[in-house]
Design goal:
This protein is an alpha/beta fold. Helix content is 31%, strand content 18%. It is built from nine helices and ten strands. Helix 2 packs across helix 5 and helix 4 runs parallel beside helix 5. It is globular and about 50 Å long.
Length: 277
């Protein structure tokens, strides 16, 4: 994720994407009405800074997708109240928040598999934003919105209580050094913001290939008031098939290139599934 806590470490652009890159300096000029480098300004002053803005190098196809679709499908996380019903054009559509979508391949596949659910996908990686918009256009997805900025600002300032049908955070930066653990996204203060925004029955789904972070995630989620583990450890009341409180890998989460690379390195991928009670 390269963002300090939210976005997955980003996979390379699809090999079939046009190769001509737009330099980072040009990208800032190219999108006068597109994703801003720092949409929330001073609102991002908090202990968990969930990102470092990254323009990066963007292909012509990704840049063109931003030009075509940002005004309609893009969202700036500037701290202003956000009306999800108006954003998706459907007051009855349940909306799941995904923090850190990388290049957006898994997001697009999940959106296509479940068109009855809206996905508000947050990241600050401009090439990834353009790629997800390109995939949404290609696949005719109307249930995806791409949000630019700090997810903490969104959670803290922009959403009303019980407005989300779920939360997904897949492969956030593990910050493996002990001195950097405070930068990890999944902490009690993060759940304090998330839980009130979840409607009853909403699902929190986390995944990581870094075992120490998985253990921390499990500890934090187990301690969060209002959340119940769908796969409690063996011997717990209502225990289902799982391993030590972790969930079996769900079929609905697409396998990504990054996940395959982790498995090839011998990493153990852990999924956690909790429900808002």
């Amino acid at each position: 994720m390269s963002t300090s806590s939210t976005a997955p470490r980003t996979a390379p652009a699809r090999p079939d994407a046009p190769a001509a890159p737009v330099p980072a300096a040009a990208a800032a000029v190219k999108f006068p009405a597109g994703p801003a480098p720092d949409p929330a300004g001073s609102r991002t002053e908090h202990r968990i800074r969930s990102f470092h803005a990254r323009r990066g190098r963007i292909t012509q196809a990704q840049a063109a997708a931003i030009d075509r679709h940002w005004a309609r499908w893009g969202v700036e996380l500037d701290g202003s109240p956000l009306d999800l019903a108006a954003l998706f054009g459907d007051p009855g559509l349940p909306v799941v928040l995904e923090i850190g979508f990388g290049m957006g391949d898994a997001t697009a596949r999940m959106a296509a598999a479940d068109p009855s659910t809206g996905i508000l996908a947050v990241d600050v990686h401009t090439p990834g934003q353009g790629n997800l918009l390109m995939l949404a256009e290609r696949d005719g997805l109307t249930n995806v919105r791409v949000a630019n900025g700090d997810a903490i600002v969104l959670l803290r300032d922009m959403l009303p209580p019980a407005s989300l049908a779920g939360l997904r955070v897949y492969f956030p930066d593990p910050w493996p050094k002990a001195k950097h653990h405070k930068r990890r996204l999944i902490q009690p203060s993060f759940l304090d913001l998330v839980v009130p925004l979840l409607r009853p029955g909403a699902v929190v789904h986390l995944a990581t290939d870094w075992e120490p972070y998985a253990e921390q995630m499990l500890e934090v989620l187990e301690a969060a008031p209002g959340l119940a583990n769908r796969y409690p450890a063996a011997g717990s009341a209502g225990a289902a098939l799982g391993e030590g409180g972790f969930a079996p890998r769900p079929d609905f989460r697409p396998m990504t290139k990054f996940e395959r690379q982790g498995l090839e390195k011998g990493h153990v991928v852990r999924d956690l599934l909790f429900t808002r009670v």
